[in-house]
TrEMBL record:
Keywords: Lyase, Metal-binding, Zinc
Pfam families xrefs: GFA
The keyword Nucleotide-binding belongs to this UniProt entry's keyword annotation: no
Span of domain CENP-V/GFA: 3-125
Stored PROSITE patterns: CENP_V_GFA
Gene3D superfamilies in alphabetical order: 2.170.150.70
UniProt xrefs under InterPro entries: CENP-V/GFA, Mss4-like_sf
Keyword presence, Zinc: yes
SUPFAM superfamilies from the UniProt entry: Mss4-like
Protein's name in the database: GFA family protein
Similarity field: Belongs to the Gfa family.
Amino acid sequence: MKIEGSCHCGKVRFSCEAYAPVPFLHCYCSICRKTAGGSGSAINLGARADTLEVEGREHLGVYRARIAEEDGGCRVSSGQRHFCTGCGSALWLFDPEWPELVHPHASAIDTPLPEAPERVHMLLDSKANWVRVPEGPGDVHVDGFPEESLEDWHRRHGLLDGG
């Protein structure tokens, strides 16, 4: 499914082919919460990196999160969180560990997206205490990372490649 997105001020526009276009995975980790804002979670889609086309690259910034280690040390994430330097909109994540993939933020997508048959709320063990996570028949709660991948979830629901 071809998806198109943009930042709030319109300086950056992008498009890509999403093989996993259904926004179902809500991440509540401190990195997503603080860099993407909104409801206290970020929702990333799965797309093919070689299809990413960007207008306004000169307005892009990249943030690499610092992650605390159990031994008290800190490491820099390999994930590159792209944002607009004009308005601060979170746009997509690219990680060179998986060079074939790019993960657009659903919040930046302008193309109508399919509705998710269920929502997986992940990394709840690091959510802010003021965040209320929806609870209902279509809500799955996971303290850490879900066992099922983005691709496998789409496959199980018959939604891989938008189909």
